[in-house]
Structure formats: C-alpha cells, structure tokens
Design goal:
Blueprint (H helix, E strand, L loop, with lengths): L6 H6 L11 E6 L4 E17 L1 E5 L6 E3 L2 E15 L3 E8 L26 E4 L2 H15 L5 H18 L2 H7 L1 H4 L2 H12 L5 H7 L4 H12 L3 H19 L3 H8 L4 H12 L3 H10 L1
Antiparallel strand pairs: 1-6, 2-5, 2-6, 3-4, 3-5, 5-7
C-alpha cells in the first residue's frame, strides 16, 4: 500500500473531510451483514468491486454483483444484505461535475428509453475497474479532499462518455435526465457563455419555444428577462472586483467604455464611476 505523507497538513486544510455533497466513500461488509443505503437530495452510484449485495423489500430480487456499475437514483432509502463478503465504492452528488464539453446531459434525452428499468446497471470495463481501484487507494490512504474528488468525478464522466454508448448513458443516467433541477442547473451554467435567447436555446439543445415554456415553469419569467438580470448581476460583480477596464470590457462583451457607461446609465441609473463607488462603499 502507498503511504500518504504529511497527513496533518491535509487534515488542516478546510477542504479535507468537508460536508461536500460530491464524495466517494467505501464499504467493506461481511457476508450476512444488513445495511441501509439512505441518501437525501443527492444521486447515488455504486461501483461493485467484490461480492454480492441484495436489495431487501423489493417485489423482484435485485442483486448487485462484482464488476458492475449501478445507478440507484435520487432520494433513496434501501435496505440491503450482503450475500457474500463484499466491497463497493459509493459516489453521491447533487450536481454532476462534467468538464467534458462534448458530454451534454440534455443531449442524451433523445436516447432515453420509454420507461425506466428496475435496476440500472452497466458492466465495468478495465478502465472503470482501474478507476474505482484508484479511488480505493485514495480513500484507504485518507486522502479525503474535496478538490481531488471533484477531479475524480469529472474523470468518471470522461470515461462514461468515451467507453459507453449514448443509449447506455441515457439509460444509466435516467434519474439525472428526468430531474426537475437539472434544467435550472444547466441554464445557470450556460448563461455565462451566451448573450442571446437563441444562443441559450442552442446551448441547451432545444428550441426557443421549448426554452421559453421551461423558463416559465422553473423561473416564472422569460429567458430574455432572466438573461438581462444575470447580465446586470455579472456587471455589478465585475465592477466591484476589478479596476482594469480594458479587461472588463472584453470579458463583459462591451465594445468601449462609452458602451459600458451607457449600459450602466440605462439599467442602474448611474454612470460606471458612480456605480463602482456605490459598490465599493457597501
């Protein structure tokens, strides 16, 4: 086993063993052991590396087996029993850490099956087994770092996109694709990269009509008004943060200082200088 150096320095870090909702944890259970899997307000995934675990209280016999990956859904409370000595890694998160620009959850919706399946399972290929084994080494050496596990979660999504089909991913991530909060999360992430309603609709892989309907349901406003409010907040934050107006103009999409000043007068009733002074005095 590898050895983790300077453990005290890791422990003193505020990101060590935080209450972060994107963490991996490991379970080693003896044959016959009963356990509860209770996860609130987060999605749950299981990497089975050894043994066999059976769900209790199900109409049909559902069993988790070695070398398989399982998607259990959100807000779960499941009784389980180990049918043999077992070891698995659990991943939970409320918001997926996806850094791959080509892995868009919303784009998988067209591959969704007509109905959800009783047990969402995929076989782990060698890359996934090696991935889970590396997480085991980190956990075993007490590397409980939020940033590290953000990176590992993102690595997992890269592997899922690269080595499983879109239909397999749509089936497996069915709970994420049907989650009401996924739309709100998606548009908030896309907002900083677009400037018009048409661009936002394209980034979300939907028509402007569908986008407008969803905005009414989720935010009780129009996409245009929502983007305007987001832009106003970004302008205020950036004005408060920096004095480098050349950098600021490019970042916010203004062609000149006069353009930015006109925007501030129109939407805040104050010049750039007056608004910046107000923000810094708060």
């Amino acid at each position: 086993m590898s050895r983790l150096y300077y453990l005290n320095e890791h422990i003193e870090c505020p990101n060590y063993q935080s209450n972060y909702r994107g963490m991996f944890s490991e379970y080693a259970v003896d044959s016959g052991t009963m356990l509860d899997m209770n996860v609130e307000e987060a999605f749950c995934f299981i990497f089975m590396l050894k043994g066999e675990i059976e769900f209790l209280g199900e109409d049909s016999r559902l069993i988790l087996k070695k070398d398989n990956l399982y998607s259990l859904g959100k807000n779960i409370n499941i009784g389980m029993r180990a049918n043999s000595d077992s070891y698995f890694i659990r991943l939970i998160f409320d918001k997926p850490q996806i850094l791959c620009d080509k892995f868009e959850m919303i784009a998988l919706k067209k591959y969704l099956p007509e109905r959800d399946v009783a047990l969402r399972v995929l076989p782990m290929n060698k890359l996934l087994v090696d991935f889970a084994s590396s997480v085991h080494e980190y956990l075993n050496n007490k590397m409980f770092c939020r940033h590290l596990y953000d990176i590992k979660q993102s690595e997992w999504f890269f592997l899922m996109r690269g080595f499983y089909t879109k239909k397999q991913n749509a089936m497996f991530f069915y709970p994420l694709l049907n989650d009401d909060t996924s739309f709100e999360t998606m548009v908030k992430e896309k907002a900083g990269k677009v400037s018009t309603v048409n661009e936002l609709a394209a980034a979300c892989c939907m028509s402007t009509k569908t986008l407008t309907r969803k905005f009414k349901n989720h935010f009780d406003t129009t996409p245009k008004q929502w983007l305007l409010e987001q832009k106003k907040q970004i302008v205020k934050i950036e004005l408060w943060k920096t004095d480098n107006f050349k950098e600021l103009l490019g970042k916010l999409g203004f062609s000149s200082y006069a353009h930015l000043n006109g925007y501030c007068l129109k939407y805040f009733g104050k010049s750039v200088k007056e608004l910046k002074e107000d923000l810094q005095n708060k």
